[in-house]
Design brief:
This protein is α+β, with helices and mostly antiparallel strands and about 160 residues long. About 30% of the residues lie in helices and about 35% in strands. The chain has a five-stranded mixed β-sheet with strand order 1-5-4-3-2, covered by helices on one side. It is globular.
């Protein structure tokens, strides 16, 4: 196909789109987001920060790890926790058992100002010594100052070892 014909066909298609009311765009806007540098070690340390906040026995300190609008789907409750007050209510009950978490296995993925940490963990209750093995997923977002949890799903392992 010669150059003039190709140009004519391209122009005809563009004009037909305009005539039909369809928008014709030729460029994608540039992305202006600046990505916060991070590492797998830094993302792994976010679980440690959360786990240490459990040791304070202060539900407010634990809930402070979560971003506004975040979702908590907890291990030992059927109710999704969407507000800070709902998260604090859950943790007040959970903290009564004096839980300590330990990561058994994990996979971390890092994006631009977001990260995913998922795997298996075990909680040991200081009050009884009982253990709960569970699957987990934490998603994190950089808020311009710190990494916060945007969603946290945890569910007890369905099968016994």
């Amino acid at each position: 196909m010669n150059h003039d014909l190709a140009v004519s066909m391209t122009l005809a298609v563009a004009l037909a789109g305009c005539a039909s009311g369809a928008a014709v765009t030729t460029a994608t806007p540039a992305r202006t987001e600046v990505c916060q540098p991070t590492s797998e070690q830094e993302i792994a340390a976010l679980f440690d920060r959360w786990n240490l906040s459990l040791q304070t026995a202060d539900a407010h300190q634990v809930a402070a790890n979560y971003a506004p609008g975040s979702v908590l789907l907890p291990t030992v409750s059927n109710k999704p926790r969407l507000t800070t007050a709902e998260k604090e209510d859950y943790f007040r009950h959970f903290l009564a058992n004096k839980p300590v978490g330990k990561i058994d296995s994990r996979t971390i993925e890092i994006g631009c100002n977001s990260a995913l940490d998922s795997g298996l963990y075990t909680f040991t209750y200081g009050t009884t010594g009982a253990q709960v093995r569970a699957r987990y997923t934490y998603t994190y977002k950089w808020d311009g100052k710190q990494w916060l949890i945007t969603s946290h799903h945890s569910s007890a392992m369905p099968e016994k070892d």
